Amino acid sequence: MTDEMQKHLDKGMYGQPLVNPDEQHKYMGTFRERCYLSMTLAQMKEKDNQDNLRRELAKDPDAQVLMNGQLSETLQGEYIQLLTKSGHKFTIVNDFVGTNPDSLGLLVVSKEAVNEPVIDIDQKYPEKEAESAKSTKKKPGFFDRLFHPNDQ
To answer: How far is it, in rounded angstroms, from Cα 150 to Cα 71?
Structure first.
């Protein structure tokens, strides 16, 4: 009987014990297998990623969003507006969050496991690198074709 009493007292003093606490701290209180998409604080500042977030939210209307409570008010306001327009539930998390640019700023999550292989927004939507690579390819000018005909 004393073991049961000790467990009850520990639970009252320290709270419910966490399963995989390191993983829960990294993913703002949830598990990796429940994540559809993740964005770091630095990625949230890029406007292209807002369009990618809209695309991801359109795929699953039941998804919820966890947002880092340490975001600047202006950036937080932009994303709250975006989420309100899309009709998705969101939670601002103040526990388990960091403030450096590589910390998670936003997670699109499910209530149950979805086991997405890739959740990073830059890896999931790499179009902007492909577009920038196309734009950096220089079209040869008249003199380039005249003096360097074999380089084409």
So the answer is: 53
CB 53 within 8 A of CB 75: no
φ and ψ at residue 42, rounded to 5 degrees? -65, -40
What is the phi/psi pair of residue 120, to 5°?
-70, 130
Q: H-type helices in 29-126, by residue range?
A: 41-44, 47-59, 73-86, 121-124
Q: Would you give the DSSP letter of residue 74?
A: H
Query: Please, where are the H alpha helices in 64-120?
Result: 73-86
Q: Where does residue 98 rank: exposed (0-12), middle (13-18), buried (19+ CB within 10 A)?
A: middle
- Summarised one tens digit per residue, pLDDT across range 70-129 is 888 999 999 999 999 999 999 999 887 778 888 899 999 999 999 889 999 999 988 755
Question: Domain 20-129 is of which CATH architecture?
Answer: 2-Layer Sandwich (3.30)
Taking the C-alpha atoms of residue 39 and residue 17, their distance in angstroms, rounded to an integer, is 28
pTM over 0.85: no
Tell me if residue 38 falls in helix, strand or coil: strand
